């Protein structure tokens, strides 16, 4: 059980309204219970804290949410935030949305599943073209669960010195076990490419081998999310280590209409105009469409206008289409 000093610190921080210190002491108490072999109790304490943070975040923007802050060398390997994103902010194909909702449902019943010897989904590999929502998915998962998003900084993780990168990766996985959160490996092909490729580098191969071992051994409560635009070059052994493979595509016409309605709900009421713009946006990614709409809305705001002319967005979408064609033509 918690010692007297911890209990006094807990009550003192509550009386002072110091949420940050209260959370810190409570997490220490949960960790102490885990070390004593009271794993179920420790897990329940962490879930109560996560639920409290989530409720506060949803109920008031004025409440300061205590952030888990990586320290020392770990601070150079992980960026941390508490996203406000939600699944409702995204427009995703139905199979993708259903799969992610399943992950969230299992995470919200984590204790119940584990008490029956079952493992919730928590290791996800997101694949698909750039700008289709992979990064926002990681943020939305963290936002929905009220837990921190940790972005793994691959530029700091990968070094040229033998064994150093694997040691840094070990620190990341130690953090995965110590602090529940969503740990996001973006541009995952940087460390997950097939062993034996012509440009294979020995240190990268060692990182991949270490990652395969560490993710297989990991039994934490954190979510590990990896994303790549180049699934075709990933090592085959990786796919077996993830619970789910989530495939993203460029948005279909129906998805584009939904995205435009969501982004233009205040600035454009004409369903006909939205449908016409959606036709012109086919072939663009979610990110490209969102940026075009944002540029149009900003211009309207600066001009003190209450609506966005369809032709303004049309021109911006055409610019994005031209840019995509130039980029495609430049590829070998």
TL;DR of this structure?
With 332 residues, the protein is an alpha/beta fold. It has helices at 4-16, 19-35, 39-59, 74-77, 94-108, 110-115, 134-145, 154-157, 164-178, 189-192, 202-217, 236-239, 253-263, 271-281, 286-302, 310-330, and strands at 78-81, 123-127, 149-152, 182-185, 223-228, 244-247.
H-E string: HHHHEHHEHEHHEHHEHEHHHH
Number of strands: 6
What is the CATH topology descriptor of the largest domain?
A: Rossmann fold
Average pLDDT number: 84
Q: How would you describe what is shown here?
A:
The protein is an alpha/beta fold and 332 residues long. It is 58% helix and 8% strand. α1 runs antiparallel to α2 (19-35), α13 packs across α14 and α13 (253-263) packs parallel to α15 (286-302). The protein is globular, with a radius of gyration of 23 Å. The model is unreliable at 57-66 (pLDDT under 50).
Give short descriptive properties of this protein:
Rossmann fold, 58% helix, 332 residues, single chain, Helicase, Ruva Protein, domain 3, alpha/beta, 16 helices
Compile the SSE list and pairings.
Blueprint: H1 4-16, H2 19-35, H3 39-59, H4 74-77, E1 78-81, H5 94-108, H6 110-115, E2 123-127, H7 134-145, E3 149-152, H8 154-157, H9 164-178, E4 182-185, H10 189-192, H11 202-217, E5 223-228, H12 236-239, E6 244-247, H13 253-263, H14 271-281, H15 286-302, H16 310-330
Parallel strand pairs: 2-5, 2-6, 3-4, 4-5
Antiparallel strand pairs: 1-3
């Amino acid at each position: 059980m918690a010692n007297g000093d911890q209990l006094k610190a807990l009550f003192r921080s509550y009386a002072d309204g110091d949420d940050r210190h209260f959370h810190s002491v409570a997490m220490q108490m949960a960790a102490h219970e885990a070390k004593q072999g009271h794993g179920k109790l420790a897990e329940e304490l962490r879930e109560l804290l996560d639920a409290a943070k989530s409720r506060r975040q949803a109920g008031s923007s004025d409440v300061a949410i205590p952030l888990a802050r990586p320290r020392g060398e770990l601070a150079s390997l992980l960026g941390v935030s508490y996203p406000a994103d939600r699944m409702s902010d995204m427009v995703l194909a139905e199979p993708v949305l259903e799969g992610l909702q399943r992950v969230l449902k299992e995470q919200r019943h984590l204790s119940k599943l584990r008490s029956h010897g079952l493992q919730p989904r928590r290791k996800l590999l997101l694949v698909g073209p750039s700008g289709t929502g992979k990064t926002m998915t990681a943020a939305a998962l963290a936002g929905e669960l009220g837990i921190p998003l940790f972005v793994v900084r691959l530029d700091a993780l990968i070094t040229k010195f033998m064994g150093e990168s694997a040691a840094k990766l070990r620190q990341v996985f130690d953090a995965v076990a110590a602090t529940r959160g969503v740990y996001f490996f973006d541009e995952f092909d940087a460390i997950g490419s097939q062993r034996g490729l012509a440009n294979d580098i020995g240190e990268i191969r060692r990182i991949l081998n270490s990652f395969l071992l560490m993710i297989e051994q990991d039994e934490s409560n954190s979510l590990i999310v990896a994303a790549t635009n180049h699934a075709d070059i990933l090592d085959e052994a990786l796919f077996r280590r993830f619970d789910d493979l989530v495939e993203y595509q460029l948005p279909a016409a129906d998805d584009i209409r939904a995205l435009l309605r969501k982004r233009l709900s205040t600035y454009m009421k004409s369903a006909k105009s939205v449908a016409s713009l959606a036709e012109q946006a086919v072939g663009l990614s979610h990110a490209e469409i969102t940026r075009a709409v944002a540029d149009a809305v900003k211009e309207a705001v600066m001009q003190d206008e209450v609506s966005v002319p369809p032709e303004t967005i049309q021109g911006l979408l055409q610019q994005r289409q031209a840019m995509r064609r130039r980029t495609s033509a430049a590829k070998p």
